[in-house]
């Protein structure tokens, strides 16, 4: 395997137009979690490079904001078509760099295509409102204007899809882009940027130079981008710790942040549930992407009357799930991203065991060599919700808790600092509606008869509490990339004042 993946990456990036010289001689070593091998050695950008990128983005924004929104939508349509053309190669590159199984790598690119389709229609629907005025011969209207350059800080687990959620919307809204990808997944960013530049070159003068800027580097580079006063909107995906810093810095300069942070997602399984359906959904939700989704199922809250049988069935699934090379065979679970992820998983399992929980599986598997970290997903039966159960560990650990009443289950569901996604398995309409009500789940996403992961682009994606409160993708998430302006228009010959105020002058 060693060297094979490196060669594959070079072929893909060369086909996309990335120069071979960009992949050699730099201090940032891009690796594949599949084997641990080095794929490229990248040059990193400096603080000065960040300042130059922001300046270029500002100049591009001043031109792009004047392009009619439907024309901006045409650019995004062409970007979607370019992604369709290169879906297989880009999906494979996602798998090589992030370690997710190939169907998930391809699915991530499809998600990019889907949000482009959504944004094309949105470009003709950036609606404001018209309100009645209390003053004669007046009207009130609301309109939306482009906000400015948008900084996008993305994470390794969805290295290109989350960028596209932000980029497609920001572009049709009239904004320019500055992208700082995770240093654990820079190669997919290079590939997408190359495709973007091809679309821009073919689009003509309406697409200004610098419309999308790419910055490769680590934390210091991200900090420079976040603190820059000429970046009015910063979208950041990552840990709660990171989000606290980003939110504080952006707020201090009165910018706007879109934060997509931690998730400690739960599903409730009720006695009325279709248990066969629930079993399949729980397995995917907890083990898909090797537990490295922000929407991964991490807590399973099962009614005490069905818990023993359901957990026994789940243990059989965990014992038999195929773990292996995500590029080949029938593997459903690929590797963890790196050694740090494996060590964090083992620390959480040890803490759970020390607290009296019953740990099943979670061991490292002899796959991929010494620098690759494949594990059997862990199933942990816990008697209480504390310690590692209330913390997000970015690995395939599912904690099982038991409940007796629905109110107790909802209290467990909500009893963690995070508030991203949740679900209930039930065929009782009263239970379902209770879960979806104001007294139910406190998460930004609440599903029924499916797991907490696998969100579609049509709905707004994001969560509450320590998840950050940001919304991306569908619904009216586009408003975060624009500024609202209210207009009062007097089309008469008199000057009546609101609220009955009088200010009479002889003129």
TrEMBL record:
<protein>
    <recommendedName>
        <fullName>aldehyde dehydrogenase (NAD(+))</fullName>
        <ecNumber>1.2.1.3</ecNumber>
    </recommendedName>
</protein>
<comment type="subunit">
    <text>Homotetramer.</text>
</comment>
<keyword id="KW-0560">Oxidoreductase</keyword>
<feature type="domain" description="Aldehyde dehydrogenase">
    <location>
        <begin position="30"/>
        <end position="486"/>
    </location>
</feature>
<dbReference type="InterPro" id="IPR016163">
    <property type="entry name" value="Ald_DH_C"/>
</dbReference>
<dbReference type="InterPro" id="IPR015590">
    <property type="entry name" value="Aldehyde_DH_dom"/>
</dbReference>
<dbReference type="InterPro" id="IPR044638">
    <property type="entry name" value="ALDH7A1-like"/>
</dbReference>
<dbReference type="InterPro" id="IPR016162">
    <property type="entry name" value="Ald_DH_N"/>
</dbReference>
<feature type="active site">
    <location>
        <position position="260"/>
    </location>
</feature>
<comment type="similarity">
    <text>Belongs to the aldehyde dehydrogenase family.</text>
</comment>
<dbReference type="InterPro" id="IPR029510">
    <property type="entry name" value="Ald_DH_CS_GLU"/>
</dbReference>
<dbReference type="Pfam" id="PF00171">
    <property type="entry name" value="Aldedh"/>
</dbReference>
<dbReference type="InterPro" id="IPR016161">
    <property type="entry name" value="Ald_DH/histidinol_DH"/>
</dbReference>
<keyword id="KW-0520">NAD</keyword>
<dbReference type="GO" id="GO:0004029">
    <property type="term" value="F:aldehyde dehydrogenase (NAD+) activity"/>
</dbReference>
